[in-house]
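Need the bound structure for NAP, inputs here:
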Amino acid sequence: MQDKTFKALVVSESGEKQYRRDIMDRRIDDLPPGDVLVQVHYSSLNYKDALSASGNKGVTRKYPHTPGIDAAGVVEESSTATFRPGDAVIVTSYDLGMNTAGGFGQYIRVPAGWVVPLPEGLSLKESMEYGTAGFTAGLSVHALIHHGVQPDQGEILVSGATGGVGTMAVMILTKLGFRVAAVNGHTDASDYLRQIGAQTIINIEEATDSSGRPLLKSRWAGSIDAVGGELLATTIKSIHGHGVVTSCGNVASPDLPINVFPFILRGVTLVGIDSQNCPMPERMETWKKLAGEWKISLTAEAVEEVSLAGLDRCIDRMLNRGHRGRTVVNLTDAVN
Ligand SMILES: NC(=O)c1ccc[n+]([C@@H]2O[C@H](COP(=O)([O-])OP(=O)(O)OC[C@H]3O[C@@H](n4cnc5c(N)ncnc54)[C@H](OP(=O)(O)O)[C@@H]3O)[C@@H](O)[C@H]2O)c1
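Answer from helper R.:
Posting the output first, comments after.
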């Protein structure tokens, strides 16, 4: 078994700050030690994978490396009683795909503490349609509800709405009866945003105030932000009294140019979302919701399926802001 080979996307340094991606044969023996060996059926593409696959050393320190922060598959070997060969499982987050060989390979070996049994109601493929993006959207929606935001309080603004986290957030919120305003992409994506459920489309210029005013007209009951920077600052200044904003991403900027007035004069709550180290009980609970009462079905416009061979162009597209919705990677047919 340990000699068995499998296909994986391997990113290597090819020169000073230059990286190449190849589909290569790897051996089970090449995988790091761990409790559970999983044959990966599906993975998915997230922004962090695109960073890892392009040599971002803040995400991945050492190359050659196989990215893929998401994996869903079937246990092949397990040294713990918690998981048995044949169990269908999801592995996302922790160090998977960062400095541990990830889901862009047909096998992963990981600690048992990283593994979530596939919840009833989800297929392996559906779990990767969500992937880390959907899981993060789920945590964000949960945070809004947990802090008291309800559908009758007004619109929820979702930024980065054409992307993975944003698309899933728009769809889950819409399913739960919230009215959603979505921030448009850098090329017009209003048709797409309406298809996934947004009722109001906000252009990025309208969503970004550069006046430096500490408070703006109150407009949103809550917000899910994946963008950061001035857009997030503008949103926080535009939230209704006692409204809630979640922050999970920094595609525009990690900075937050703001003062404390929205917090001390309007009682706004800013909730940080960290899917990577989300504790296991909350992780299982969120997956159960995504498989059950929050379950959404992605339209053909919101999800595409590729093989390992098709992944390269999707990574480049994501880095160049041409990506939309979710990309699921089918590892059962690695190269066609
Ligand atoms: N904290 C966590 O646990 C967690 C989990 C998952 C993801 N994240 C983070 O969330 C962010 C989004 O991830 P994703 O997987 O959804 O990425 P994605 O699919 O590439 O989506 C990115 C979204 O952001 C928009 N965008 C990109 N650059 C922008 C800019 N400069 N200004 C405004 N909007 C911009 C894109 O729209 P257009 O390019 O069309 O304009 C797109 O809607 C990333 O920062 C990721 O690292 C965090």
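Comments: The domain at 132-272 is CATH 3.40.50.720 (Rossmann fold). The longest strand covers residues 5-15.
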